[in-house]
Design a protein that fits this description.
By secondary structure, the protein is α/β, with parallel strands linked by helices. The protein has 3 domains: 15-65, no CATH class; 85-226, Glycogen Phosphorylase B (Rossmann fold, 3-Layer(aba) Sandwich), CATH 3.40.50.2000; 244-401, Rossmann fold. It contains 14 helices and 14 strands. The longest helix is centred in the middle third of the chain and has 16 residues, at 244-259. The chain is elongated. 38% of the residues are buried. This is ADP-heptose:LPS heptosyltransferase. One of its GO terms (molecular function) is ADP-heptose-lipopolysaccharide heptosyltransferase activity. InterPro entries: Glyco_trans_9 (IPR002201), LPS_LOS_Heptosyltrfase (IPR051199).
Amino acid sequence: MRKPTPRAPIPPVELLAWRPRAQAERRLTTPSCPTPAIECSAVSDLPARPETFAVARGPGLLRHLAGLPPHQPLRTPLPKRGIHSILICHLNQSLGNALLLSPLLTELEHRYPGARVSIVTRSPVAHDLYAGFHQVETIQALPSQWLGELPRYLRSLRQLRRESYDLVIDPDAQSGTSRRMIQLFRARYALGYDGPRKAGHLTHAVTVPADLESKGQLGVYLLRTAMGLAMEDTGPPPALRLSPAETALGRQVLDGLLAGLAQHRPGAPVLALFANATGPKQKDGSWWRRLLEVLQPALAGWTVLELIPANGVSMVADAYPGFYSRDIRKLAAVIQASTAYLSLDCGVMHLASTTAAATFGIFTTTSAAQWGPYGPGNHVLAGYDMEPEAIARRVIESMREAGLPV
């Protein structure tokens, strides 16, 4: 039997040429962007103003398999005008991560004050966290486990895909899911960080800075760099933007809690204590007892209020009066009415950092450079490889440096 003649390998360019003309690869150059930056499907599919057509569905996987180089982003900065509709894709469900998106929202208000912002997120409390940002008009909170709620997941995506955006942003420096998600939406410009886990089209890809780790500041750096601006400061701090009515309610709730306490003197400082955390950050009751035994004498004139975690169980055996609420904004208002706040690194710490209370965050496992609270009145306490007694002494020292009466 005659053996078939082996076929010569097809070079990558010919491989792409197999596709029908309607899907043939095209590269676009414009006077404002001489470097080919965009891949479109066919000439007939190009928009009337091709220089504004930034995100197109292209054969990124085929390019990778064929060994072709990745698409090059635009070399011109984002325009300072003409951005009116913005979509942020931030697929993280933790409270801390969701709050650390707020500096970018504040920066967008400053750079594009008339723009409308939409957010796609997995945070179940996103509506509460971003209620104070007037530019945020639409929040799509996707289910955290999409396989179990596929119809709802698809409905949310369809709603977002109905619109076209001037700018879509993937602010996370590491998440590959957010990058894949923004490929689903129609936009003139796509902004995000470059990296090995970041596959997909971007018109403005920014290199992750080697000297900046703060999760909250990275979003601001991303936008400023894409606009051709320098990062001359830390940018705006995280914000919740409690209303005057919410602030007054927090004061009223705290006063009501303290009114029946014989040991509380009117006008005495209040320390809001949250003794919970998640995963390896969490410490047990004995750890906290050892820390509080050293800290308590320095707080002789203070009233300590424990903020009860979501499970409704005190972490310090009900040693102090407690406050329990699942309302994020009400919890923040009570912290705002307090003098100071103390906890390990956790989501409630980031919530406290948005208030006027002096916030002290203890770091024993996670990176303080990445997750530490920043901005006026916020203090990072590095407690790596330290016993709780030594950490307590560091807390006292830091409170004194902050001018608190300890």
